[in-house]
Amino acid sequence: MFNKLKKKLSKSLKSGKLKVFSMFFILSFLFLALTKLSKNYTETITFEIVYKNVPEQHHVDIDSTKKVNVSVNAYGFSLLKYSFYKPKLEIDFETDVVLKNKTYLWNAQQNAPKLSANFKNSVDVISIQPDTLRFPYQTLAVKKVPVKSNVSIEFAAGYDMSTTLKLVPDSIKIIGSEKWVSKIDYVTTKKTEFKNINSNIEKSLDIELNEALNHVKMSKKSVVAKGHVEKFTEGTFNVPVTIINLPSDTNINYFPKTIPVAYNVSLNNYKQVRASEFRVECNYRDINNTEKTFLIPKLVKVPEIVKSARLKQHKVEFILIQ
Known about the structure:
Blueprint: H1 2-13, H2 20-37, E1 40-52, E2 58-60, E3 67-75, H3 76-79, E4 88-92, E5 98-100, E6 103-107, H4 112-116, E7 124-129, E8 132-139, E9 141-148, E10 151-155, E11 159-161, E12 166-168, E13 171-176, H5 178-181, E14 187-188, E15 192-197, E16 201-206, E17 217-218, E18 222-227, E19 229-244, E20 252-255, E21 258-266, E22 279-283, E23 294-295, E24 298-301, E25 306-311, E26 316-320
Parallel strand pairs: 1-4, 9-14, 10-15, 19-22
Antiparallel strand pairs: 1-3, 2-8, 3-7, 5-6, 6-8, 9-13, 11-19, 12-18, 13-17, 16-18, 19-21, 20-26, 21-25, 22-24, 23-26
């Protein structure tokens, strides 16, 4: 009924010049339309379905062609707008369905109040078809796996990162059949090169796909790489050598007594570094019962704010004292 009225009105408005006869025709038409719209009608309104909160661990068979037809009774004025647009029905899998025999069920009677909320009080809902919507599913495997970066960074002279490169998020969920999910222990980002870097890093990186990943769903297809870049400088301290595991009945004299340690630290933290925060050790057990005349020093303690450190001498000579 409403479609016919709409077509007649559209045809009339598209006519070239409205003469007196046309004006009277339109007025007559509008009077007729108002008369028609003032009457009660029973119409069937089709709702398109929108799905919400579909469970990730289940592969739900969603049929996009499914619709819900609602028969209503109301005045023509209340029904006119439904001739111009299709209303939508939201089905929330957390609140609107029940689970039975590996099938999600939507019941029209139980969800009638939600449907009725789409109409004004002047519209009476007569029936809802179908009375039940069925959504069968298959159980899927869900697994959380770490994301590894495949990134090479070339810094501008004097610059470095004060912390390791971070990925946000550092892990993702993969969802699919057990056959393919079991093959995936981690994912990697696509190979990316950063060159001549002298400022903070923040860049989106796509995840590299392989055969297994092509058969599953991922909670994220990209991550963000973040790194704090600072100006760095080098410092040097002479650190005392400590001999450990020296037998109580053994005396030695060793040289040098201190070893220079070179370290890299951000310019902002340079003044906070102390020589006492480094420790260099030589383990006598490494050469005990051998004929070696030197010990190998090891840097066993470094301040947390230091990016890297190295010994500038790699032998400590010694002699036994009788």
